[in-house]
Amino acid sequence: MTTLSGSGSRLGDHPEPSRIFPWDPVSSAFRGPSVTLVSAVDAARTQFALLAGFHFLFVLVTLGLGPVVAIFQTRWAVTRREVHERATRFWGQLYLVNYALGIVAGILLELQFGLHFPGLLDVAGEVFGAPLAVETMVAFFLESTLLGLWVFGWHQLNRWVHTVVFWLVVLTGYASALAVMVANGFLRNPVGYELVDGVAHITDPAALVLNPAAVLSLGHVLGACLLAGAFVVIGVSAWHLRRETAFDELFRRSLRTGVVVGAVGALLAVGFGFSQFSYVTQGAEAGQHPVVGVALGFMILGGFALFLGAIPMLALMIGGALFRLPFRRAVYGFLTAVLPVPFVLAILGWLTREIGRQPWVLVGVLRTSDATSAHSATTVLVSLVVLVGLIATLAVVDWVLLGRLARLGPGSPVLGAPPSQAREADEPLTFAEVSR
Amino acid sequence: MIWSLLLVGALAGWAVLDGMNQGLGATLRQVGRTPGERRTVLTALGPFLLAGEVWLVAAAGILLAGFHDLERDLLLVGYPLVIALLVTWVLRDAGVWLRSRRPGVRWRAGWERVIVAASVGLPLSAGALLGTALVWLPPQPSLTARVVVPVLTALSAVAVTRVLGTTFVATRTSGVLRERAARLAGRALPWSAGLLAASAIAYVVLVPADGPVDAVLPPLVVLAGSGSALVARPALADGRLHRGLAAVVVGGALPVVAVAIALAPVASPASTLELVLLGCVPVLLAAQAWVWWTFRHPVGPRDAVFY
Ligand code: HDD
Ligand code: HEM
Ligand code: HEM
């Protein structure tokens, strides 16, 4: 493992920290075939991949639905019409219930580097840590703080301030996506650094940020996010329209907004998708895995399908033609059924990118197998089962809840309701009678 | 120096601000005896859940960017504790977010129990990790020290968050909830003072002193516990809640500062980063101040109910 040189006495200097359980209770208790079946490196990579995958499924909706909520809230602030208020609260509630799991999965990801890839921190901690620090300290910090203000300031903030607060939440979310992509782009295509005694130092911050593997990929990822958010809006709206659930106007407007957002997303995803080949093809250092070709093929196919599908959909929005088609119910059913498509494509995209990087964790500099921690395979497997099992369970619970809230419709969302309507019948609030 | 200040600030901020949320969660079913009372307590938590936990997210980012040696070593020795911290943190959040998303009585009671258990487990693992940093980095020769100190710091963290949480609930509610929370706070205060003193004594006895810094550390911790108890108990009894809250907040932050002084980790950051982060700190603090100021009152009919 690489060690830092020329750094005076520091905490990390002591010989080799011993573990809390020096004898590794887990592997000595179950020492058996599992140790030889899966290496610690594989277990660490799988754990990261699964946690990141779950995280990203929620991130897609956070970043994609955010602008939709912000647009409806802005319309509400301008027109003060009830249909816009209801739309804001309905989509905002779905946004929040999704957001909860986005945070929770992000928390599990954040310490993965230190837990399982300490070699990456030894070699590239300074470079790679910088964007992640900006992300956590600035973007997440502001995003979450402001989101709390938005949810709970519903009846207290001036309506323009309240609207601006949500736009800031969306903006800081996009800023954090940029920061993450800068960190991840550095792994894919290391630039703007120099190696001194095996340790990377930043020499050119601008090159680090303007890395095509960060900027072009950010455009591509944001396209994917807008597509995902749009498909959620379109799918849910079509479901309600098909069933004629008494909120026709709201869902027609939503569907229209979703189609426009989705068309923008498809344009971004396809455009930036092809532009990424500018650096992908140079990266001959990274090995080629069969999965990469297949995943990339599906993504390109799906991308074109979405792009081409956007054109008739936009045309059908003119004068609300879609809502008067004789076979509209079939179209509604189809639009609901394809809701998962962008999610599948986005996961295939990350598989392309992350597996395409192998065997390097930092292309051309550090191999994945040299970056993993000294923990035994069994220790890492146990944490994999615990953490992934936890997030998978919570994710399923959350998706079931989201489905339920989506079906319940915009009749009485808890978000933004007066306290007496936000609670259940058997929950009289202790403050409800006294005024401040 | 700047990096150390950032790290200590973020950790101490988390310890007290999220500590209030942890204590609130741990006492949720003691303060709130009916579903409605518990919903009121969760409404009191409302805007502060995210605003509290982001401090630890920020601390982790600072650790990653500025202290990767410390992060690597701490996560290596404390691996199981880190996993426990993550699991309890995630469960606490999931409980708060999901509890009121369905009407069923069992659904809500089930998540409330998750909130209570996770809100005890979270300070337990965080406190143990803090103690582990003290006596495992660098490793102390005596095994007793390596076991006793983390156990005591873990228990202290549970007691301190309990004090913080109940005092916080007392300031954010009214009527019977306020009375109950203040009573629980009064009862928890001697425990937190005693456990902090015990941790400090164990550290003095079991860990060989190493320089003048080590001499300052234990008294600081004892002072944090007893001082805040001496100020907060009468204040709570007289209904001067903000004074009590201030006392327990200072008492909650001091032990973290003391541990940081004892460890004095050396930063190895990227130089350009400092300017960016320092430029942003005022904005971040302003956003936090805005939230804490907006929702400083006891919850009332104008407050949004969500959790
Ligand atoms: C392209 C977008 C994107 C990608 C690739 C990632 N994230 Fe993420 N992350 C977000 C976009 C995002 C977000 C949209 O900004 C989230 C989702 C919900 C939220 O609160 O912010 C978020 C939340 C979130 C949180 C919770 C923050 C909080 O408590 O407010 C953490 C700690 C992380 N992420 C960490 C990571 C790490 C370590 C990643 C690297 C593997 C990562 N995220 C990939
Ligand atoms: C014709 C269309 C598309 C092309 C040519 C394309 C191309 C690519 C390429 C080359 C990569 C790998 C980049 C790397 O390894 O660094 C990639 C990654 C990715 N793709 Fe696509 N893609 C297309 C459509 C889509 C669609 C429709 C989605 C989602 C809805 C999507 C989501 C992703 C994601 C999330 C990644 C990983 C992040 C990244 O590297 O940007 N792609 N895409
Ligand atoms: C959120 C979307 C992401 C997804 C779905 C994703 C997916 C994956 C997958 C599938 C792997 C396993 C590759 C393999 O072992 O063959 C992996 C590994 C990894 N990813 Fe990502 N990733 C995401 C984001 C990121 C980001 C933003 C970073 C860095 C900032 C990152 C850093 C890593 C590292 C360090 C590994 C382990 C080492 C390695 O296998 O190279 N990932 N990820």
Offer a concise description of the structure.
In chain A, 72% of the residues lie in helices and 3% in strands.
Structural summary, described in words:
- Chain A: It comes from Cellulomonas xylanilytica.
- Chain A: Belongs to the cytochrome ubiquinol oxidase subunit 1 family.
- Chain A: GO terms for molecular function: electron transfer activity; heme binding; metal ion binding; oxidoreductase activity, acting on diphenols and related substances as donors, oxygen as acceptor.
- The complex is a heterodimer of chains A (436) and B (307).
- With 436 residues, chain A is mainly alpha-helical.
- Chain A has one domain (39-408).
- Chain A contains 17 helices and 4 strands.
- Chain A has helices at residues 25-29, 33-37, 40-79, 82-110, 112-116, 118-152, 159-188, 205-209, 212-243, 248-275, 277-280, 290-317, 328-337, 341-357, 368-371, 377-408, 419-422; strands at 193-196, 199-202, 360-362, 366-367.
- The longest helix of chain A is centred in the N-terminal third of the chain and has 40 residues, at 40-79.
- Chain B has one domain (7-280).
- The longest helix of chain B is centred in the middle third of the chain and has 32 residues, at 105-136.
- Chain B is globular, with a radius of gyration of 19 Å.
- The mean pLDDT of chain B is 91.
- The interface between A and B is large, with 94 and 94 residues.
- The structure holds CIS-heme D hydroxychlorin gamma-spirolactone and protoporphyrin IX containing FE (2 copies).
- One protoporphyrin IX containing FE (HEM) binds at residues 188, 213, 217, 220-221, 224, 227, 269-270, 273-274, 276-277, 280, 296, 299-300, 302-304, 306, 342, 345-346, 349-350, 352-353, 356 of chain A.
